[in-house]
Design a protein that fits this description.
Strand order of the largest sheet: 12-11-15-16-18-17
Number of helices: 15
Shape: globular
Strand content: 15-25%
Radius of gyration: 26 Å
Structural class: alpha+beta
Helix content: 25-40%
Length: about 500
């Protein structure tokens, strides 16, 4: 939430754009609307200009009411913008000093609504945000957004030109052996391979009434040379970089011809290499006095991180999957951005995988979290180790998701400061959630507010008390019949 009284402290960036708008709505406004909606959301300030030293100052508007009316007229014109994703609360007139400005808050568009484009030209006028600028998306990026729109995930597709000989049945047998260990007595355990693959979702029936691999089946169990027939950009790359004097100390790629090149084999080959990193400790423990128990929370988190990479990859995207194993850091990259906002992914509970059938396949061998708790698990494991918090980032054009996992211990003072800063950020976020909810539901009780935002009543009570003391929230009327008044 912007503090407009401190406008001069803000700078234009990935989520903030200022436009003087002295002559009316600037034409560049619409590219920014598209780019914010297609990226991570943002705020447009009209009547604000950027000084030579990059500071923002209020220049004011002659007739802000007319500009707001003009904006609503244009944003609801499908020939100008294909879709209006704003509500009335997202556009308002504010006063800074003696000047009137317009604040337009643009949320990140849901994947089912993307792409947000201009002038009825999805392939020519769809924009994304990069730093301080808006850039036109390539056709490949737009097609990636379109692929993500539907309820059916990409890997459900039945590949009608692909024969069942595309499968590496040795990979399948390794999978089935592992499943018998994790799911003893499962009803699919004694099925023939083809029937098993069909139950698993790896085989589907085409319009020719014949069995063919699905995209999930091909990716999970296919031969690399067959996979690249459907996914020309498909490439899996594991790099071990322990010695700064050499390019890599070990490397494995899907195109080497030395192994199947599919996702299932890549997962275990890569995971078994990652846990050999000297900084990944494997304690010697005994269970029942005889069985070795060496599966730590970090091991589980690494499996989760690796599975998330494969499950959420856009295999039609460019540059493939890259895993870099350094002595003090593991970097995991996949093509495709998050299908939900990064904040939603970090908070957990929301699952929107790009490849839902592959999730099912991994779940049957006890890999991956379906409930959306996988990312929080990774953060929890790293916090327990007192390692630097994991860093997720998104890159656009081409779209990529990058996870950096530091495996180097930091000192306790750094860790304490980091935890304190995170607690402060979490509390500020909770304040914003309470204020926003009470703005829209002024008659809500504290219990209703707590239930709506998924927090405890005590937390909400503490926040409301703080907001009232600071003059950001007032109570009008009695406890039973009064209403909340949120101050901006």
């Amino acid at each position: 939430m912007l503090n407009l009284n401190e406008l001069g402290n803000y700078r234009e960036g990935n989520r903030l754009e200022a436009k003087k708008a002295a002559g009316g709505l600037p034409n560049s406004l619409w590219a920014t609307y598209s780019s914010f909606a297609n990226t991570n959301g943002g705020v447009i300030l009209l009547g604000v200009e950027e000084t030579i030293d990059k500071k923002l100052v209020a220049a004011g508007l002659n007739d802000p009411e007319k500009l707001v009316a003009d904006f609503w007229s244009a944003v609801n014109n499908s020939q100008k913008v294909n879709l209006n994703i704003l509500l009335n609360k997202h556009v308002r007139i504010e006063t800074v000093g003696n000047e009137s400005i317009i604040v337009i808050e643009i949320p990140r568009a849901d994947r089912a609504l993307k792409p947000i484009f201009l002038n009825e030209k999805p392939y020519a006028e769809t924009y994304r945000r990069d730093g301080e600028g808006d850039y036109r998306c390539t056709r490949e990026v737009v097609e990636g957004m379109i692929r993500d729109k539907g309820d059916k995930t990409q890997d459900m597709l039945v590949l009608e030109k692909m024969p069942l000989t595309a499968f590496d049945y040795d990979s399948l047998q390794r999978y089935r052996k592992r499943m018998k260990i994790t799911r003893p007595g499962h009803v699919w355990g004694d099925l023939e391979d083809v029937e098993f693959l069909q139950k698993l979702g790896a085989i589907g029936i085409g319009e020719d009434d014949k069995r063919h691999p699905t995209a999930a089946g091909l990716l999970m169990f296919g031969f690399e040379y067959e996979i690249t027939r459907e996914y020309p950009q498909y490439f899996l790359d594991y790099q071990e970089l322990y010695d700064a004097d050499v390019r890599w100390t070990d490397r494995m790629t899907s195109s080497s011809g030395e192994w199947s090149g599919n996702l299932y084999d890549f997962f275990y080959k890569t995971y078994n290499s990652l846990i050999q990193n000297p900084n990944i400790k494997t304690p010697f423990m005994m269970k029942n006095g005889r069985d070795r128990l060496d599966d730590t929370l970090v091991h589980k988190a690494l499996r989760e991180a690796l599975a998330n990479c494969l499950i959420n990859a856009d295999f039609y995207g460019t540059r493939g999957i890259v895993i870099r194993n350094h002595l003090d850091e593991i970097v995991i990259e996949n093509p495709g951005s998050f299908r939900v906002s990064l904040n939603e992914a970090l908070s957990g509970g929301i699952s929107s995988p790009r490849n839902s059938v592959i999730i099912k396949m991994f779940n049957l061998i006890d890999i991956g979290e379906r409930s959306g708790s996988g990312v929080p698990l990774i953060y929890h494991a790293w916090k327990e180790q007192e390692w630097k918090a994991p860093i997720y980032t998104e890159q656009f054009g081409p779209d990529r998701t990058i996870l950096k996992l530091s495996i180097k211990a930091q000192n306790k003072a750094q860790n304490k400061a980091q935890n304190k800063a995170q607690t402060k950020r979490n509390y500020a976020l909770l304040e914003d959630m309470v204020l926003e909810y009470l703005k829209e539901h002024p008659l809500a009780t504290q219990v209703e507010t707590a239930n709506a935002i998924g927090k405890s009543r005590r937390s909400v009570q503490v926040v409301i008390t703080s907001l009232k003391e600071r003059g950001l929230l007032e109570r009008e009327g009695s406890k039973q019949s009064g209403r909340w008044v949120a101050k901006d």
